Structures are given as structure tokens and as C-alpha cells.
Amino acid sequence: MSGERRPLAAANWKMHLLRAEARALCAALRAAPPTPGADAVIFPSHPLISTVAEALAGSEIEVGGQDLHPEDSGAHTGEVSGAQLVDAGCRWAIVGHSERRRDHGEDDALVAKKLAAAVRHGLRPVLCLGETREERRAGETFAVIERQLSAALATAPADGASWVIAYEPVWAIGTGDVATPEQAQEAHAFLRERLAALGSPALAASLRLLYGGSVKPDNAAELIAQPDVDGFLVGGASLDAGKFLAIIHACARR
């Protein structure tokens, strides 16, 4: 069934780059030969969204927001709504990233509301979930990601083509550590089994599961070869056009 799930390479630029740097990176991505075997999406910081959307207009690379507020509008200083993301050129939105959960105290209930808001505005959510190093050491990996998944499913679409899940073990994000292909496959297989049990077999079979956490060109091919790994949510390596293109190509060769 994995062959029916088109691989996806997603770039999370986090709080990096200025407009000139973003334009240059987008130009380098556009100058590369097309990669018909995989999809790609860029998640710039909010001030860069319009710049990136303009720079990538007419290309096959889509744009998304790194976060959104659960409400459609209102007195929420410093926040951004789903409608504003769409208006700026977004097709996607990240919800539940571990850095939002850690830095802003976002819990599973709030993440579920944000997922619902993304869907309401026609954005395709990337639901992030994953365990900390302490939780893995305590043998709680499966319990943590099942809890996060169960909460989100209450507001998630039943159509597996309209959203994705990114499994990002927190201990591997920006640390240089990376889950082994076997560890990534184990977590992804568990998520797919739980999707079947909590949602439906059709959803479990069609939903793309991405891996995130220190993904680089030299480990992408081995990770994407796993049957339940359908692509990547890439951090630091996505700030280098050559590295991100290499990761996209690894996805396309799956």
C-alpha cells in the first residue's frame, strides 16, 4: 500500500531567514529539475509566507504556516488565523509541534482545536506528535503518541489524503541524534495500527506518516525505505537548498 502514498518532503524553517535569504533559497529550489515522484511544501515563519508564496508561484512546491490560532478572528495579539494563512498563500498548517507544546504549553486539547481550525479553512494539517527522551527511557513512547493521536482524531478528517502525521521524537529534534530506521518504522507501524483501530482501516492505509528529527541527506534514503515512512518534516537541513533537494530526491526514489 505504501506505493499508493505519494512521498512528501516538508521543510520547517522555524525562526530562520530574512526575506532576501528566503528568496534566494526558493530560487535555488525552483532552478532544480522537477521531482515528479514526491511532493514538497515549505513552512516559513509567518512574516515570510507572502514572500515565499510569491517566489514559488507556479511551481509544484506548496507553502504552509507553522502554526495557527483555533479561532477564526478576534483579539488575540501576536496570533495568526487560518483565514490569514490562506490569504497569504498557504495550503498547509503545522499543528502540535513539540516546540509549541514546550514553549507555549500547548496541550492535546488545544492541538485538536487548531487541527479543526486548519480543516475549517481548507488547510491541510501536519499533526506533530512524539515522545521526549525521558518518556522513551521510561518505556512510554507508545502510550504518549497514542494519547496525542487519540485526542487529535476527534477533529481530524476521515480522508487520509487531506492531512498528514509527523512523528518527531523530541529527543531527535535539532540534537543531531536520529531515530534508527527500525525505531522510526516501529513508531510509524504502531501509529498506523492505532489509526486502523481508532479510525478506520482505509484511513490507516491512506494517511501519510512523516518522520522528523535530524533528517539529513545521508540518512534519508535508509529511513524512507521503511514501509510505513512516507516522507519527512525537515528542520535544519531544509535551510540548505542542496540538502533539501537531496532529501526530496530520496523520497522520489522510494
Give a quick rundown of the structure.
This protein is of the alpha/beta class. It contains eleven helices and eight strands. The longest helix has 18 residues, at 181-198.
Task: Please explain how this structure is put together.
By secondary structure, this protein is an alpha/beta fold. The chain is built from 11 helices and 8 strands. The protein has helices at 19-31, 49-55, 82-88, 98-104, 108-120, 133-137, 141-153, 181-198, 201-206, 217-224, 241-252; strands spanning 8-12, 39-43, 62-65, 92-95, 124-129, 164-167, 208-211, 231-234. Helix 2 links the parallel strand 2 (39-43) and strand 3. Helix 10 runs parallel beside helix 11. The longest helix has 18 residues, at 181-198. The model has no long low-confidence stretch (mean pLDDT 95).
Would you spell out the secondary-structure blueprint of this structure?
Elements: E1 8-12, H1 19-31, E2 39-43, H2 49-55, E3 62-65, H3 82-88, E4 92-95, H4 98-104, H5 108-120, E5 124-129, H6 133-137, H7 141-153, E6 164-167, H8 181-198, H9 201-206, E7 208-211, H10 217-224, E8 231-234, H11 241-252
Parallel strand pairs: 1-2, 1-8, 2-3, 3-4, 4-5, 5-6, 6-7
Helix pairs in contact: 5-7, 7-8, 10-11
